[in-house]
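Quick one, probably user error.
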């Protein structure tokens, strides 16, 4: 007789700032969509207070790679608007975010397993799309 351990739930991480209304709304959306009709969780939510636990350089690089294509480079979209003129390339952006994590645009939701990330600005539409993609896969 063989034994197969149960599948682990996928993890959706949110780089979160509780003082930010968009970040609170994105977290609430993640929590609201987490339960399946049978009350089992569809995924785990990992809340990362990025000001207390700043992202590592590897995490920043992965998030930049995971953000879906756009006419604006991912590294630029990851920086808050007030700091846009301080950086001109990925290396400068990464250095700035490592030194001043508060300049990370928020919220960012990451599905590490699927290699996708969504920025919750200016709307939560991209976050909703990422969650729906995960839920669709859970129904299979």
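Nope, works fine. Designed sequence:
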């Amino acid at each position: 007789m063989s034994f197969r351990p149960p599948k682990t739930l996928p993890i959706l991480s949110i780089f979160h700032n509780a003082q930010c209304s968009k970040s609170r709304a994105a977290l609430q959306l993640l929590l609201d969509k987490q339960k399946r009709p049978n009350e089992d969780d569809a995924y785990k939510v990992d809340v990362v207070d990025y000001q207390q636990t700043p992202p590592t350089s590897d995490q920043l690089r992965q998030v930049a790679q995971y953000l879906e294509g756009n006419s604006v480079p991912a590294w630029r979209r990851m920086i808050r608007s007030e700091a846009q003129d301080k950086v001109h390339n990925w290396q400068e952006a990464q250095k700035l975010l490592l030194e001043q994590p508060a300049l990370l645009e928020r919220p960012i939701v990451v599905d590490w397993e699927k290699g996708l990330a969504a920025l919750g600005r200016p709307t939560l539409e991209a976050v909703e799309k990422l969650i729906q993609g995960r839920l669709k896969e859970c129904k299979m």
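The two ends are 26 Å apart (CA to CA).
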